[in-house]
């Protein structure tokens, strides 16, 4: 199933980032940063299979050189808080070949970015083992160019005018103005446009390749998939986390993100396995057979035993492969996953078993968020009680108004916190100790629910091993990916029938051997 990962970031000098260093990282090239007078090179970076810089028609040709391009960006973006580059991390579909993925990402960049005047620096990574996680890194320039390839301003001032068309001054006597961007590249709506365009183009390539898979780039909420929401972190908590200080809310969010990741991996694994099962069912149906009549375990055992040694009797299966096969078939026997139909049923059960846990986790996280906010507002109100109490005891109107003006921010913050507490604790007084105790219990319960997901994750991994062994040892059950010719269909039917006959014969031999063993044991027992 294609992964909808499409992450967008902006590199800024305010965070100490360097466009040259980031370009060196994603491309694997050795680049020289003229601003810092240092060479940037990441020698341990592996799996870079393709790089290219795409230029709009008005860009200087020398910007096709990565070192020249990003040093030029570093030179023109000289403010302490300059935005240096827009960066994308995009998952590529494993269902397409690398050549198809290169064409896919190039078309997307040309249509969505280069045609608008941006320069796109592309790097495709396919880390070990190849084919399991191909993805593209794209860096875009943030500043437009004129028709002669010169950098332009990102924005210009537009002075505010009164009804007579005259400029307006602020309280300090300066002209009021607003900042008007030269281009709309930073509009928030672009993210959704780009993601949707990636969905359309990617699905078109999948269709052209004859693949049935499709990607959906909508958020889980818009797709009707409930993920556990993280707790909002206010500016104070965010600042502490950025300084490396661990906070309760930060720790909670890390736990929730870990749980979400766990559930998403489980959901994606099950979805891919279900697609595979559908393909198997279809392949079996084409052979005039029924999935519930195909003894999957017996066929696997019979085929595996044939492959243990070669024609000369030499062992060719490794001990690791043998142990893994034994573990997989034991799982199938223990869980009554004996046929293709049983495997389909087990996958459905596994998927349904995760739904109530996710719902419980969502309810818990919602309550935890409320309590965290109650504690935050309770602490804030307590810290401002002195100011608020002083305000209440002032009786003279003029003095009261002056005090309110001088302490407006503190009094507004006290009122805001008080309103939140009264809204969420309408029938009881605020008690921070009680809330902290409840919060601790809820977090423990959330951790327990997360642990309940792990056995399902382990079972999903085991089912992936089942798929791996079926693909390796029962290729005749796999779809061909194209319409079967009468000859090919008969060939597969014959292969499956032979497998079934051998499996039945081996099963009868094992049953007979077991019966003899049992009778022998009975005779020995009577002889005593």
Number of domains: 2
- What percent strand? 5-15%
How are the strands of the biggest sheet laid out side by side? 1-5-7-6-4
What does the overall shape look like?
A: flat
Gyration radius over CA: 32 Å
Low-confidence stretches: none
Largest sheet: 5 strands, antiparallel
| Record field, number of beta strands | 9
Summed up, the helix count is 15
Structural class: alpha+beta
How many angstroms does the end-to-end distance come to?
63 Å
Order of helices and strands: EHEEEHEHEEEEHHHHHHHHHHHH
The residue-averaged pLDDT reads: 82
Query: Fraction of residues in helices?
Result: 55-70%
Features:
BirA Bifunctional Protein, domain 2; 528 residues; alpha+beta; 15 helices; 5-stranded antiparallel β-sheet; 56% helix
Helices and strands, with pairings:
Elements: E1 6-12, H1 19-27, E2 31-33, E3 38-40, E4 48-54, H2 66-76, E5 83-91, H3 98-112, E6 120-125, E7 135-141, E8 155-159, E9 177-181, H4 189-208, H5 220-223, H6 235-242, H7 248-286, H8 296-307, H9 319-334, H10 340-383, H11 385-392, H12 397-406, H13 408-424, H14 432-473, H15 486-527
Antiparallel strand pairs: 1-5, 2-3, 4-6, 5-7, 6-7, 8-9
Helix pairs in contact: 3-4, 7-10, 7-14, 8-9, 8-15, 9-14, 10-13, 10-14
């Amino acid at each position: 199933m294609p992964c909808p990962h499409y992450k967008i970031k902006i590199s800024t000098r305010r965070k100490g980032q360097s466009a040259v260093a980031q370009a060196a990282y994603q491309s694997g090239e050795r680049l020289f940063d003229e601003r810092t007078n240092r060479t940037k090179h990441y020698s341990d970076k592996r799996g870079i299979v393709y790089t290219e810089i795409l230029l709009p028609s008005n860009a200087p040709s020398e910007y096709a050189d990565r070192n020249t391009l990003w040093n030029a960006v570093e030179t023109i973006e000289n403010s302490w808080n300059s935005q240096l580059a827009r960066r994308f991390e995009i998952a590529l579909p494993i269902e397409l070949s690398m050549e198809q993925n290169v064409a896919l990402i190039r078309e997307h960049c040309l249509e969505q970015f280069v045609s608008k005047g941006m320069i796109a620096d592309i790097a495709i990574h396919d880390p070990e083992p190849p084919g399991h996680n191909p993805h593209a890194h794209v860096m875009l320039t943030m500043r437009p160019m004129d028709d002669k390839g010169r950098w332009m301003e990102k924005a210009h001032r537009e002075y505010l005018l009164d009804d007579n068309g005259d400029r307006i001054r602020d309280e300090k006597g300066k002209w009021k103005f607003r900042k008007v961007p030269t281009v709309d590249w930073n509009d928030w709506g672009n993210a959704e446009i780009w993601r949707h365009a990636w969905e359309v183009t990617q699905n078109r390539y999948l269709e052209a390749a004859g693949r049935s898979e499709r990607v959906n780039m909508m958020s889980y909420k818009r797709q009707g998939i409930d993920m556990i929401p993280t707790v909002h972190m206010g500016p104070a908590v965010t600042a502490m986390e950025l300084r490396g200080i661990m906070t309760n809310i930060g720790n909670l969010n890390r736990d929730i993100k870990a749980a979400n990741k766990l559930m998403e991996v489980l959901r994606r694994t099950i979805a891919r396995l279900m697609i595979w099962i559908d393909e198997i069912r279809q392949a079996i149906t084409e052979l005039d057979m029924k999935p519930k009549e195909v003894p999957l375990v017996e066929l696997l055992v019979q085929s595996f035993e044939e492959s243990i040694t070669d024609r000369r009797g030499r062992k060719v299966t490794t001990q690791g492969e043998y142990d893994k096969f034994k573990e997989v078939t034991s799982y199938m026997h223990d869980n009554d996953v004996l046929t293709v139909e049983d495997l389909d049923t087990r996958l459905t059960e596994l998927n349904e078993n995760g739904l109530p846990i996710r719902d419980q986790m969502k309810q818990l996280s919602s309550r935890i968020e409320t309590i965290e906010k109650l504690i935050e507002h309770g602490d804030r109100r307590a810290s401002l009680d002195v100011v608020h109490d002083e305000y209440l005891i002032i009786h003279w109107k003029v003095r009261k108004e002056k005090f309110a003006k001088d302490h407006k921010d503190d009094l507004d913050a006290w009122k805001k916190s008080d309103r939140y507490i009264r809204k969420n604790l309408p029938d009881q007084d605020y008690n921070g100790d009680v809330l902290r105790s409840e919060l601790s219990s809820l977090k423990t319960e959330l951790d327990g629910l997360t642990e309940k997901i792990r056995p399902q994750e382990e079972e999903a991994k085991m089912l992936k091993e089942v798929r791996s062994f079926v693909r390796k040892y029962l290729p005749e059950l796999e779809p061909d990916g194209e319409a079967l010719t009468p000859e090919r269909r008969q060939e597969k039917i014959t292969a499956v029938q032979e497998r079934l006959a051998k499996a039945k014969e081996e099963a009868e031999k094992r049953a007979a051997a077991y019966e003899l063993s049992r009778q022998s044991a009975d005779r020995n027992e009577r002889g005593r």
